[in-house]
Amino acid sequence: MLETDRLILRQPVAEDFEPFAAMFDEPFVTAHIGGVLSRSEAWTRFLRDVGHWTLEGFGQFVIVEKETNSFVGKVGIAKFERDLGSNAYTALECTWTLRSAFHGLGLAKEAAVAVHQWHDARGGGPTACLIAKTNTPSLRLAAALGYSEVDQLQRPNGLTAVFMRYS
Fold first, then answer.
1. Within 13 A of 63's CA, how many CA atoms are on the CB side?
2. Rounded to whole angstroms, how far apart are CA atoms 155 and 127?
3. Is residue 99 within 8 Å of residue 113, measured between CB atoms?
4. Are 84 and 93 a contacting pair, CB within 8 Å?
5. What does the pLDDT read at residue 33?
6. Does position 167 have pLDDT exceeding 80, yes or no?
7. What number is the average pLDDT over the span 3-16?
8. Which member of 61, 91, 154, 161 has the greatest number of CB atoms within 10 A?
9. What is the pLDDT of residues 62-105, one digit of tens each?
């Protein structure tokens, strides 16, 4: 578990699925990441996040707001075994997804900074992130976290920038 001024970051548990599925049912949240997920697709993604911790010893943290105990979203380091382009020298990706009610409050940055500090303290290594070129808030966050664009990939939902961060 990680803690920041406003947040608790912890491994996902079964009770997180309902708010998780609701988050991936928000068109505003999913606009740049492939669109709304069906309940079944959300379940598959949730299981992937849970399983990552078992197989890899790291993964996506659930973000909980301390003050309200509300599910904010997820953030973490993962190994998705997908094409990151020829200029990404890692298989590890940092991702963040927040419910729309929590956008614009600086919580994604607060959570992602904590995750990177945790990752670096564990021996770290470089991480990448894939961000749709149209996702301006995430592009700004990646830059604030020390990521630099190293490539671009055409993906099913449009042109995606590949970023690298070296710890």
1. 27
2. 20
3. no
4. yes
5. 82
6. no
7. 98
8. 61
9. 999 999 999 999 999 999 999 899 998 889 999 999 999 999 99
- Token pair listed for 130: 């894939």
Banded pLDDT at 139 (limits 50, 70, 90): very high
Distances (CA, A) of 18 to 22, 71, 81, 115: 6, 10, 26, 23
Interstrand relation of 93-98 and 148-155 (parallel, antiparallel or unpaired): unpaired
Task: Tokens 């904010």: give the residue.
Answer: 72
CA neighbor of 4 nearest in space, from 91, 75, 87, 54: 75
- Which pair of structure tokens corresponds to residue 84? 């990151």
d(CA 62, CA 91): 21
- Give the lowest-confidence range in 37-41, 60-64, 84-88, 107-111: 84-88
Query: Using CA atoms, how far apart are residues 131 and 155, in angstroms rounded to an integer?
Result: 10
Q: Read off the DSSP letter of residue 144.
A: H
